[in-house]
Amino acid sequence: MAYVVDLIRYPVKGCAGTSTSDAFLTPAGLAHDRSFMVISEDGIFRTQRRHPRLALIRPAISTDGTRLTLDAACGADGTGRFGTLRLDVTTSAPRRDVDLFGTAFQGIDQGDEAAAWLSEFLGTPSRLVRVPPEHDRIADGLTPGPSGYADSSAVHLLSRASLALLNQRMAERGAPILPMNRFRPNIVVDSHEDHDHDSGGDRAALPHAEDRARRISIGGAELGYAKLAVRCAVTLVEQERGARRGPEPLRTLASYRRAASGGVVFGAKFSVITPGKLSVGDEVVVQEWGDAEL
Q1: What is the β-pairing status of strands 265-274 and 155-159?
Q2: Of 107, 36, 23, residue with least CA distance to 70
Q3: 28, 170, 217, 227: which could form a disulfide with 175 (CB 3.0–4.6 Å)?
Q4: What is the number of other CB atoms lying within 10 angstroms of the CB of residue 25?
Q5: Beta-strand (E) ranges in 73-220?
Q6: Rounded CA gap, 53 and 252, in Å?
Q7: Taking 80 as the threshold, does the pLDDT of residue 195 lie above it?
């Protein structure tokens, strides 16, 4: 059997995540996950691909979503602490056009104070926007579904077994092992160490079992498989330092996880079929299996 061992939300796209023991899974993912986004002055979303220092910003959002706190792990010169910004979130400010992977959406600008704080920390003019209540984006995949400012589908699920296999292969190449945060999942699953890996019911405990899970029940929620997670240069960013660190894990992943459609894949994306509460310790029940798209 597999169980939830971590739940992570990323209130601001591209910034650090926050682990929680309980979370409500909304139609668009974990509550408040990627509901804010840093953009350029002309509306283009900012990402760790080009701005790895985003990883050093640690957001915290109140339960009701009305208060956002941004705390920077270090200053613009790479030393000390930059400071803390506390914002009253607005949903009534004028909308502005934003661009996410070339697709036009709307965002609610969170004001000049947030813009000045982010611009100084990142060293480039930036603004902060929130997903509008009328946001109606539907991400594609085998199971389409609503999504906020995530790269694609609402939920990214990854197993510790998959990471363990990657780290084993990296160690064989002389590369250092990597933590789970390099891959920025929302739901991390694992199984009991003493479970029988030869039993037919233990498919969820094997590496990359998430590739084949088509319908999952967790707690009071249900997820439908959308697509494999194609990995990009964000995985090269050491999250604790906000800087790129060499070619791994993409180099090793390319040796055994190259998708037929192009790119390397690691983990899976899911859409929300039934919203509900999730908790660390919840059993992950795979109701339907399919063939991996690798």
Answers
A1: antiparallel
A2: 36
A3: 170
A4: 26
A5: 83-88, 95-100, 103-109, 126-130, 138-139, 145-146, 155-159, 187-191, 213-218
A6: 24
A7: no
pLDDT digits (tens, 9 = 90+) for 71-123: 997 754 455 678 899 999 999 999 999 999 999 999 999 999 999 999 999 99
Q: How far is CA 53 from CA 15, 32, 258, in A?
A: 8, 21, 28
196 CB-near residues (< 8 Å, 6+ apart): 202
Report how far apart the first and last C-alpha atoms of the chain are (Å, whole number). Answer: 24
Quick check: helix, strand or coil at residue 133? Answer: coil
Question: What SS3 class is residue 89?
Answer: coil
Residues 125-130: what's their mean pLDDT?
98
Helix (H) / strand (E) element for 122: namely: helix 112-122
- CA–CA separation, 59 and 86 (whole Å): 10
Residue of higher predicted confidence among 90 and 193: 90
DSSP string, 145-176: EE-SSSSSSSEEEEEHHHHHHHHHHHHHTTPP
- Six token digits for residue 241: 């330092």
Query: Residue 225 belongs to what H/E stretch?
Result: strand 221-230
Q: Which tokens go with 197?
A: 């890996």
C-alpha span between 246 and 244 (Å, rounded): 6
Can you tell me whether residue 39 is helix, strand or coil? strand
